[in-house]
Write a structure and sequence with these properties.
This protein has helices at about 10-20, 35-40, 55-65, 80-90, 105-110, 125-130, 140-145, 145-155, 175-180, 195-200, 200-220, and strands spanning about 20-25, 45-50, 75, 95, 115-120, 135-140, 160-165, 185. By secondary structure, it is of the alpha/beta class. The mean pLDDT is about 95.
Amino acid sequence: MARSDENLKEIVIRQTKATGVLPCVKLKSREDIMPYARAMYEGGARVIEVTMTTPGALEAIEQVSSEFAGRMWVAAGTVLDACSAREVILHGGSLIVNPAVIPEVIDLANRYGVPVYSGAFTATECLDAMRAGASMVKIFPAGLGGPKYMTNLKMVFPEINLIPSGGISADNAAEFIRCGACAVSGARTFMNRECIAQEGFEWITRQVSKFIDIVHKTKQDLPELP
């Protein structure tokens, strides 16, 4: 739950770091999004992402935001322009996630008091995202650089909030956290259609819970900063 003295940015950032996961819902048709959102919530997710490539994304964001008001916050992913970002906010979106550094989107979101997790990969792009006012930097595709890439970025930008996405698995999630990520994200990690077809939406719940457990245990074992 949110504290009464927190603003939206603080709430979303704190909840992302607290759970350590940002699971993404990416659908190819106008199917009901609510079973996916409920399964993620039951698994412990408190911030989820719905990609704008999902048919009916704005309506889906509005629906999830309404049902989980004050309990789970909804991000819009793959937001490419300021007009789309404004529509997301007007439909109840609490977070904007970009695939790249898009200053006009970051600027608009900041004007509305909504956090932005800006996509980036290189050190220059990370710096551009931070200068533009991004709350976190989503390293994508993280699998290309690997966990040690987080260490290199944190060495030059120790204050940066890194959230790797793309290529995250149960085998490498802990190493990404050990190397400096504050949380992990992904779509296929939490939306394996074969597994959902075989095991139902409970698979999503178990998957989210498993990754939260991995992140929490890893963070507990990290040395405290002086």
